[in-house]
Amino acid sequence: MAFVRALFLIIDTAILAAIPGVSLFADASGVGIFDTMTWAAVLFAPFTLMNIFPGIYRCRFLRTSVLVGGADLLTSVLVGFYAEAGVEIYRVVNGLFRTESDAPYIILVLVTCFVYLWNGIIRILVTSTMAGLVIKALAACFCMVPVVNIPFIVILIVQANREFLYEKRHELREREYAEKKVCVTKYPILFVHGVFFRDSNVLNYWGRVPGALERCGAVIRYGNQQSALSVKDSAAELAKRIEEVVAELGCEKVNVIAHSKGGLDTRYAITHLGSDKYIASLTTVNTPHRGCIFVENIYNKFSEEARQRMAKMYNAAARRVGDTEPDFLSAVADLRESACTKFNEETPDSPDVYYQSVGSAAKYASSGRFPLNVSLPFVRKSDGENDGLVAITSMEWGAAFRALRVNGNRGVTHADMIDLNREDIPEFDVRSFYIELVSDLREKGF
Q1: What 3-state class would DSSP assign to 189?
Q2: Cα separation, 128 vs 74, whole angstroms
Q3: Which of 42, 72, 129, 410 has its CA 20 to 30 A from that of 429?
Q4: Chain mean position to CA 98
Q5: pTM of the shown model
Q6: pLDDT tens digits, residue range 219-257?
Q7: Greatest CA span in the chain, whole angstroms?
Q8: pLDDT digits 0-9 by tens, 283-318
Q9: CA–CA separation, 155 vs 157, rounded Å?
Q10: Contact 36, 25 (CB under 8 A)
């Protein structure tokens, strides 16, 4: 694999250098301008092909192939352009440079490098999740400035290659998991989303996670409850959905993996709506079991009139995406610390269900993406260590709790835990995490 990629990179760079480099051949051999341009035309076909297919990468996902192709194109630009610059300096020093006849070659140099450069940069800007927004913006701004662009191009190349290697390592791990069918559980998996989102075929709330689990043998279904309802009303929809899944698959029970408010919805369904008959295990992910002080403070600061205005705007938008009876205020109110304290008193665990929980924490305001990077310091002030929304002390529930505190400066946010942004985090492979989580349920007999 590494050899094939290196070979394509050499060919790629050679083509880049060869098209403008025909000028040196013309000077040395006395070939006329027309013949030299003919040679350039001959090289145009492989030049175009290499722009479309910079290499053969054998990646599972097209995004990864496009990304690493961008890195190879930028590498070719650095090598080819500055090698050609050396050739032109040599020609000037030795009196071989002719202003009038060299104009076509100069145009060839600029056009060739421009195409390779922007092809490579656009590929990385669109597909990279590791290269930060600042680096992307600076690279786009300074990419056409010779010498100044070198550090930015090098950073993009390094980041894209790191991301490529990250994906390849995951593919190798996942292949091993898939061969062993480690996610073939006794009961199917039911994913339950949190507040302000809906399950959708267009944009999966759980990102790349369900696909990875299914390749390892898991059977996946979704809660499909509305985006914003009270815990009680969401639980009613969820209880009905669970019965539908059990009937559809002919299974006795399901294993529920619930994120954020979805964990509270499921607990209510288990305790109050009889869903304990159909749920073997409940794994809550970053669920505010003890509520959010930050949400309580914000809720209390707004007047009733202001709350109603916000609710009206959200409910109107939610109806457009499929909610029939959205209730923004009830959904928010049920996440307050005071509401969850009362909820816990009235909602004891069922002895027939295995409860466990996982949670994570972000480290700095720069962790993750908007708006969690903005809310993180405010939540920390009121709630302490958190994932951008929920305090880690509020996430613990059940017989086991795993708190994710990873190495590095980034941490893992509320959205990272469900792969919402499809972002590769160097210290946290979300797909492998869920594969291991479901594999553990299998080992526990669920």
Answers
A1: strand
A2: 14
A3: 72
A4: 52
A5: 0.79
A6: 999 999 999 999 999 999 999 999 999 999 999 999 999
A7: 93
A8: 999 999 999 999 999 888 888 888 899 888 988 988
A9: 5
A10: yes
